[in-house]
Amino acid sequence: MCAVHFLPVRSWILHFAYVDVGASIKLNMQDISDARTAPLHSANSDSIAVTVVIPTRNEARHLTRCLGALRRFSEVYVVDSQSTDSTVELARALGAEVVQFHYHGGWPKKRQWALDSLPFKNDWVLLLDADEVLTPDLADEIGEAIRDPNLIGYWVFLRISFLGRELRFGGNGFWKLSLFRRGKGHFECRLRDQDHSMSDIEVHEHVVVDGRVGKLSHALPHHNVESLARYLTKHNEYSNWEAKVLSQAAEQRDELPPALFGNQAQRRRWLKKRFLGLPGSPIFFFLYKYILRLGFLDGVPGLIYCALQSTHFFHIKAKMYELKYTARSAKQRNR
């Protein structure tokens, strides 16, 4: 419903963005400039005391719908990476606080930097992507969940829509620890030697908390409306990162350990680590998702998504081989 309200007035929003003269505040942290505007929400008793953090880079196609669903949240940050489209103008026009993140390689990446550096006013933080849209039921549930003094975080189930269709089969949805108390959660660091070719945002690093967590019953819809070309570009960066992570001799100190009987992230990590070594594993991965997990019931979008996922798997394997070959060649040259 939020997209229906905002799209008809998009031209007005863009005009407003260009004439907005909100105050600019300098943060002396990693070359960041912070443009602050009026709050996204209207002050009322229905306001949800949660700070929402949305990382962006050229997300104008998604942002109006995402921010439109956050009217009740008392603070919203858009953490941008020098977008060249209208992302920043839209975010400011819709009342979000915009900060620019300049990645110089290494750690931390975008979301962990935001957790470390931004002056959140609330005790709870919700991490969203620009293509994720909160439903009214999920917003209500979050408002209730943060009142429980015994829990410090919540898992949220991500329900994926791809090429205009919700993917209900193929095992494509997953749980994310997206809601947690400020200062009680941080991203694991799986690789310290990183650069721009591996994206400036956490890829498959997960939030780690020390304490009891719960699960929210309402799912978080993920509406991907970007082009397949951009999807492939982003996943090329992701496979660069994952190939290097999986080629490491040892795990990082604070990395979630792979575990068959752990949470979903640990279980997937355990299976991937063992499955990657099998000959033809990308083909088996496709057959598992498309046939055994009934991905074919999602029609053509399900076929394309399962094929892209297995191709991504193949790219990781190929890049791992390239890293091994490059290291071996360098060693031979230095003899």
Number of continuous helical runs: 10
Count of distinct strands: 13
Instruction: Tell me the distance between the termini.
Output: 65 Å
What value does the Rg take, in angstroms?
21 Å
Give the mean pLDDT: 85
Question: Which structural class do you get from the secondary structure elements?
Answer: alpha/beta
Quaternary state, please?
Answer: single chain
- Low-confidence spans: 1-39
Helix percentage: 25-40%
Number of separate structural domains: 1
Order of helices and strands: HHEEEHEHEHEHEEEEEEEHHHH
What share of the residues does DSSP label as strand, in percent? 15-25%
Major sheet characteristics? 11 strands, mixed
Shape: globular
Walk me through this protein's architecture:
- The structure is a single chain.
- With 335 residues, the chain is of the alpha/beta class.
- It has one domain.
- 38% of the residues lie in helices and 20% in strands.
- It has 10 helices and 13 strands.
- Strands 1, 2, 3, 4, 5, 6, 7, 8, 9, 12 and 13 form an 11-stranded mixed β-sheet that branches. Strands 10-11 form a two-stranded antiparallel sheet.
- Strand 7 (153-162) and strand 8 form a beta hairpin.
- Helix 9 runs antiparallel to helix 10 (299-333).
- The protein is globular.
